[in-house]
Amino acid sequence: MTIAFVLASWRPDVPAGMERAVIAHAAGLHQIQAKSVIVTADPAAPSTYHNVPIERLHSLDVQFPCDDATLRAAIDASAAPIGEELNRLFRRHQVRAVVYVDALWGLGRIMPTHPRIRNILAAHVVGHDADLQPALARNPDAVIAPSVTVMSEAAARGYDSTSWSVVPNTLLTAPEPQSRSDRHRLWARGPVRVLARLGPEKGVAELLDPIPVLDRPIEVAVANAPFELAAGSQEQIRRRCRALAATTPGVTLLPGLAWHEVSAWLAGASVVIVPSRAETFGLVALEALAASTPVVAYDVGNLPHLIGEGGIIAPYRSGPDGLWRAARHLLTDPVGYAAASRAAYYRSRDYWPALVANQLLKVVS
């Protein structure tokens, strides 16, 4: 069977969880000899990526970056032609199941029905009631979420998530574990690294204000996503991060990374800090764990469950100081660091692409 993933903002190298998760799921399906296709409205997307065909949705006329209100209006204004175009694409690719990746950005709010095709709503975040309510009202065959966190948040908002299924996000690549000598070298001298998009909930600017003195470089890679809270909000955060980094010795602010660069970059860190104030899954944390790199993060969302003993979870109330203290603790405790590194890699194996692809197939079949 062919599984279609619909996500309006999808294109390679977008620094965002949904976009990265989609290609990782599609690549995982390819590993187990299942077919997939990605449907996107972004004109910058290529025709194929990682052996997965990419189709452009021409009937949705939006420009990126885009905010929720603008996208919602564009979807509603073109609902009929979008449905007709999707139907043609699905027939061409002999699609038997469609994953609408989000109630808004994945077009779940209009979710056209097609004979002999199963509709799956993916709730990576609960999102706005204005999108989730109409998506659920279209009676999808299944609803999937990347973590129990999302299901709990939905229940707290009054939605019945008891029948939803957890299909976690997965790795785009599964790296080999590092040798003890390489990891010890990184513990002794490796940089502390942070990777995030420029969203306020990612907490990067707060982490940089101020930074304690460490005996190693601190490297922070940030990038724009095709969506933002309000027009210009990402650039405001970038300017603040740039100003803070410029006044702190040893701190380097870097541009975002291409997807194929992420694993090696995180593998080259002594510690990866994930300063997110909310996280329904935590793909950056997973990528770091898979590279045997211990992770420091707040006790928010899915991060405690994901990271476990593969790093240190700091109380959110401790603020950025708590994250820096946790990182310093790891970097002054060689025994605890080595144990966290081993635990990190073995925890990541639960999220390997082929394993998660089979979980996805069970839900959508």
UniProtKB/TrEMBL annotation:
InterPro entries: Glycosyltransferase_grp1. It comes from the Bacteria. Signal peptide: none annotated. Pfam families: Glyco_trans_1_4. This is Glycosyltransferase family 4 protein. Coiled coil: none annotated.
